[in-house]
Amino acid sequence: MKKRILPLLLIAFLCLMLIPFTFASDDGYKEDIPLKYDYAEAFCEGVARVVLNDKCGFINKTGEEVIPLKYDAASSFSDGTALVVLDDKWGLVDNTFKEVLPPKYERLWGFDDGVAWYGQDGKLGLIDETGREIIPPRYDSAIGFVYGIAAVRLGDEESGKWGFINKTGKEIISPKYDYVATPFSEYESTVKVVVGAGDYYPRSHGIVDKNGEVVPPKYDKIEFCGEGMARYYTGRKCGVLDNKGKEVTPPKYKQVEDFFDGMAAVCYSDGVDYDSDAVWGFIDKTGREIVPLTYSKVYNFYDGKAAVERDHRLGFIDKTGREVIPPKYDFVMPYFTDDPRYFVEGLAAVRGGEGSYWGFIDEAGKEIVPCKYLDVHNFSEGMAAVRTGSWEAPPGYDSNWGFIDKTGREVIAPKYSEVEDFIE
């Protein structure tokens, strides 16, 4: 009898496999799609790519094959189109399920804002959505388009030269650069690109945009650093360029961090490495030192405040450089999190006091929750998770999680081994 159980179960399972999937759509009606395909992807833009006998096509949510299974390969739909391959030739279908571009290209890339690159005889050309040729195949490599411009290369990877074109195919800058950095910088609907001249390193760097050369290649290195700004390097020192390529600071800093909330942290040091004489402060987009370089470390501004460190203690400053909360804590949030906010729902988590435990302060620096917890989360929906315990506890000691409100009252007693924040 036992020997018959396994075959019977196997037969029952195979019968179940023949039953079509049934699911309810958002509109409330039910749709059945038989299990007959060798492979199927998730629905995207109302259709799903399916494979049967090594041929690809697309079905809708009723199971109708809206694009016949005749292609050797196909991409998923994106922005209303999908790439298809037939007999090693590439084409394009749209969301009306028609071949807008028949498979005739050696290679085809997806459309971006109305244009697409295609390959022919090892070269790249450009077409529009009707298949009209904008640029015949002549380039060896391309990057973009981004905000209407693309970098193009003539020649091989080692000795070729880079230039820039717009979407009409016009060369904004003829190929003459040895290097193009990615990603491009996008700011206020404009794009800038770092370019380089010279073989490998050292290489001179400059900046171009859709109107041409903004900064000629003359710096040892250029990096975009947020909010339309860039840092440039001359030797071991760096300075800052504004959105128009103007030097707003001379090359005098050891380090310039990214701009955030209109400010960037800068470091000055006479030493070769980051040693004890390194001091930090902040500059604005004009290059003015808003916060004097007097701190051993500073952190990004958020909502008008930044954490600063002096003598291994942390506090907060405002955008005028005034110390609104003097440095006296061991740690502050978001020291251990990816959330950039310091004050969440009006309170900041800080660690300090005798034994270095966690508590909460308000934006005036008043201690709302005493520093007595082993660990805390930021507030969410008026509640914060807190963990009791002691740093001196022996190994294996159980500490528990609970929740406090914004007055510090333990509304849910610490008794759980693990908790998550309140959300909705």
Output the structural class: mainly beta
Largest sheet: number of strands, sense, barrel closure:
5 strands, antiparallel
* Average pLDDT number: 86
Strand percentage: over 45%
**Overall strand count:** 44
Structural shape: flat
Approximately how much helix is present in the residues? under 10%
Low-pLDDT stretches are 1-25
Rg from alpha-carbon coordinates: 30 Å
N-C termini distance: 54 Å
Number of continuous helical runs: 1
Keywords for this structure?
1 helix, 424 residues, 44 strands, flat, five-stranded antiparallel sheet, mainly beta
Strand and helix map with partners:
Blueprint: H1 2-17, E1 21-24, E2 30-33, E3 39-40, E4 48-52, E5 55-59, E6 65-71, E7 73-74, E8 81-86, E9 89-94, E10 99-105, E11 107-108, E12 115-120, E13 123-128, E14 133-139, E15 141-146, E16 149-154, E17 161-166, E18 171-177, E19 179-180, E20 185-187, E21 190-197, E22 204-209, E23 212-219, E24 221-224, E25 230-234, E26 237-241, E27 247-253, E28 255-256, E29 263-268, E30 279-284, E31 289-295, E32 297-302, E33 305-310, E34 313-318, E35 323-329, E36 331-332, E37 343-344, E38 347-352, E39 357-362, E40 367-373, E41 375-376, E42 384-387, E43 401-404, E44 410-416
